[in-house]
Amino acid sequence: MRTYRVAIVGTGGIAAVHADNIARSGGRAELVAACDVDRARLDGFADQHGIDGRYLTLTDLLASAKPDIVHLCTPPMFHIDQAIECLEAGVHVLSEKPPALSLADFDRLDKAQAKGGAQFSCVFQHRFGDAAAAAKELIGAADFGRPLVARCDTLWYRPDSYWDLPWRGTWKAEGGGPTMGHGIHQFDLLLHLLGPWEEVTALAVRQARATSTEDLSAALVRFQNGSIATIVNSLLSPRETSDIRIDCEFATVELSHLYGYSTGNWTVTGALGHEQQVSEAWTGQPLERGSGHSAQFLAMYDALDAGRPLPAGADSVRQTLELAAAIYASAFTGAPVRRGEIVPGHPFYGGMDGEGLGTKVLEATALQHGALDTARA
Q: Of 9, 32, 202, 317, which has the fewest beta carbons less than 10 angstroms from its beta carbon?
């Protein structure tokens, strides 16, 4: 097994999570460099984590530190251009979500990966717990049966002060509200478990927060396998929870957690007459490791060791980003959106706001229902 040279770009709050998990990788990775435009913040982070290489620009970091992998922990609007710079330099990328603010920007990755021979991956750590792997194995198989009905809720709470950072709550910086920045983790896991989606009908509204984006979205999604799911993404819910429920022919699979899960957060219930087969199928799977950044990091190192494509790579990540775009497109046009419909020339291909349509719809509905109508620029 190789020891990979890793650099972190952006030294805000989430960077500490990356650094701590790299330190616990059992020698699989070495944190050799960090980058931030704020010298004081960079030095404080590097001192805390024992990092010698310190850079104010990504260009200098790539030239001097020569990392194998760069972790992008910067605000969302920087992800795609920084990823492309790394990939073209032949450096693998692990980017925090969202991977890009539009499908148009995301599709630029193809040329960058081909040019540098490196790979892109996004931090979708909920895919990597043992229980998620077991659920993916069993859903649709003989013991659980085919999936029929599902529910995916990200019910979180963010007070007004959350938007004090100037880049939060704007289409240009975050690409959207809870659909892009919060619920994307949970419905990425839903897609990982159920496979390709086919069609979505959605609503997105601004109920209470002074943002230019939505603070709540709700979607009805039909999947290629015939199952139907609801997806709710909220920043208005005082009792915070993240939930997935999938009802198969013979079993119900449920996950309830907040920002990460252990096996204990999962419940599996067999239908009448199928209790034993369902229980034995579930307990017969490896169920030790919970979700989290560490689980994804180790899976990434294993893939690189074996010469395999990175997990949570560009192809599967695009499906998740496309669903986010389709939720916005359906919500703001009032029409169902099918997978593959948002292509170059479509108003929602170049941005989740649909060339300003989203902002107009949100303002109109907020005024109509007497909700807060003071949005950020």
A: 32
| Cβ neighbours for 81, distance < 8 A, ≥ 6 positions apart | none
Query: Which residues, 6 or more positions from 12, have their beta carbon under 8 angstroms from its beta carbon?
Result: 41, 73, 74
Average pLDDT over residues 225-231: 98
What is the average pLDDT score of the chain?
96
Compute the distance between CA of residue 93 and CA of residue 313 in angstroms, rounded to an integer: 10
Question: What are the residues whose beta carbons fall under 8 Å from the beta carbon of 35, sequence distance 6 or more?
Answer: 7, 8, 9, 10, 11, 42, 54, 55, 56, 57, 58, 60, 61
* Beta bridge pairs of residue 152: 231, 244
Residue with tokens 């999947």: 223
- How many alpha carbons fall within 13 Å on the CB side of residue 264? 0
Task: Name the pTM for this structure.
Answer: 0.96
